[in-house]
Specification:
By secondary structure, this protein is of the alpha+beta class. The protein has one domain: Hotdog Thioesterase (Thiol Ester Dehydrase, Chain A), CATH 3.10.129. The protein has 3 helices and 5 strands, in the order βααββββα. It starts with 10 loop residues before the first strand and ends with a helix.
């Protein structure tokens, strides 16, 4: 993939709700929204030309969730088509903050703030985000 220096705007990724995503009441199980958020962040990096396994192998960095704040506003149900968004609102030397939403049409179903830490893949200690990755993220906010 080609890497890009262009600023990353709010990124969106389509999500279809599968039966496996729902609970006994037929709505999306609350923890699955975190998976939807994760997919949007991963695809955002991929759209910029960055694969997480390559970041580990070539730069020795791994991204981990440090904290999550989530608000569940309305339920999503089996077979709904959703849109998961990811926007960087803070980019520091070794951490990122994402504002994320799950939408069905114009309705916001779930929103969250996720703090991501960049770690040395071997030592599991904080490590600076590679500049070629950090630069376009810093332009966003």
């Amino acid at each position: 993939m080609v890497q890009s220096d262009q600023p990353i705007k709010t990124f969106t990724w389509p999500i279809r709700v599968y039966y496996e995503d729902t609970d006994a009441g037929g709505v999306v199980f609350y923890a699955n929204y975190l998976k939807f958020f994760e997919r949007a962040r991963t695809e955002m990096l991929r759209a910029q030309g960055h694969e997480q396994d390559v970041l580990i192998a070539e730069f020795g960095v791994i991204f981990v969730v440090r904290s999550v704040q989530v608000e569940y506003l309305k339920p999503a149900r089996f077979n709904d088509m959703l849109l998961a968004s990811a926007k960087v609102t803070e980019a520091k030397k070794a951490s990122l903050v994402f504002e994320q939403e799950i939408m069905r049409g114009d309705e916001v179903l779930c929103k969250g703030t996720i703090r991501i830490a960049c770690l040395d893949a071997d030592a599991m200690t904080p490590k600076a985000i590679p500049q070629h990755l950090l630069k376009p993220l810093k332009h966003e906010h």
